[in-house]
Amino acid sequence: MHATGSFDVKLTPQTAAPEIQTAELGRMTIDKQFHGDLAAASLGEMLAIRTRVEGSAAYVALERVTGNLHGHMGSFVLQHSGTMDRGVSSLALTVVPDSGTDALTGLRGSMTIKVDQGKHSYTMDYDLP
Fold this sequence. Notes:
CATH superfamily: SO1590-like
Number of helices: 1
Shape: globular
Distance between the termini: 11 Å
Order of helices and strands: EHEEEEEEE
Strand order of the largest sheet: 1-2-3-4-5-6-7-8
Structural class: mainly beta
Helix content: under 10%
Radius of gyration: 15 Å
CATH class: Mainly Beta
CATH topology: AOC barrel-like
Number of strands: 8
Strand content: over 45%
């Protein structure tokens, strides 16, 4: 199955523990509203780092998505892993296996996101039993 749409995201910086601050890691909360084939809200946490080299950075995140995916109500968790290597980016968003609930139990899949002129969109490829 294939789902597409847009989303709005709010990232809120959080205070890191003093030991983590010395490692120059940032922490943020994620608050999203998905529109389109996935009508849902999500909450999550992100850890990120920007290196001293321009255009190099990385982040990892987990977010619980709750809502309606093509008429199937429930929730699931997305795992993010993003890397930027001197301006060349790679991003993987994967549905955590067995994280689906209710009508999304058994959900498997991945998501891609695109940002164009400040507008966020997603494409999700998935399977449901």
